[in-house]
């Protein structure tokens, strides 16, 4: 472990499909049928962001987190089925690869979803070791599905790997293992953290949870504990698992020099019966609504980030890459555009510092859907619910999302001045794309 303040340990916990409105500290918790006391307490130990923004679904957000680059640049534009090309190209420089150059030990325990072939597993991309699933968790339903044929469809596996060695299958990922996997992941992370506490090196743990991705099924120990169904039981388990990691950080004596970040990869699921909530915001993931963009984010850094503070300043998932590198003194890649902005000053002094970011462009796949600038949101394509798109808009819709969080009243006619900074933001980004062409979409012409 590291006790050197210039080499803080980093623990990054990422929930899956956790909507803005699910946790107690974001207005949910007991109101959603499952109190979340551990994460709620954790939120009082640091800074909680109300305006943390991500990409449209699992793969784009995870690629942005690992590279500090918008997925339109990396080619990781969408989640794709098993058996199709997917993941980060070898050219991309990942967060753990950058941290390794700074002397960090690195581990990944959880859902990867950025490559499922040799050369693209976590242990090939900067992690010393990994354990989890290479793609996503709805695959746990495969072997129980009517008519499933293992000769034409890939079996899903829980896997493990060590850098410099071939990754290997551990067991088939089925519905029984779906209920057990978050417990397995916590056990792996606790063991790895204990080993790092005995070493003289700083560490980076990336722990992408499986909860609350569908099928949202709790561990047997949590079944029927809330009385409000399996989704609520799973939320209670997720809160408990996060608490286990936080307790272990305390138990091994590394709390004071460890940055702990908890966030979600995207907004809530839209499919019943696993549909979640984004609280006051409209929409789910796979849309450009605020309910897709905004997700929970909490950071604790003892002595550096103030306790029990909230902020509505805009932060983007790409910023986490750049900010972690700045916190640790690691160098960011200089041979490519990096979209993430260093937010360290803001995070350490949110009362008087402003976010370094005014806005960003929001793509779904390769289509620019919306532009967000300060408290304004411009929709170029209108799809308030998944599969209910009206296509490109002749006249875009403009919303003030502070005054109109549901994005219900278009006010462009009264505020055309806002188009100036938004179109400037768009022009500058698109100019940079011309000098940094993205890899082709492998599914576009299929």
From TrEMBL:
Keywords: Calcium, Hydrolase, Metal-binding, Signal. The keyword Repeat does not apply. CDD domains: ARS_like. Residues 8-329 form the Sulfatase N-terminal domain. The keyword Ribonucleoprotein does not apply. GO terms for molecular function: arylsulfatase activity; metal ion binding. Its cofactor is Ca(2+). Gene3D superfamilies: 3.30.1120.10, Alkaline Phosphatase, subunit A. It holds the Pfam family Sulfatase. Belongs to the sulfatase family. This is Alkaline phosphatase-like protein. The lineage of its organism: Eukaryota, Fungi, Dikarya, Ascomycota, Pezizomycotina.
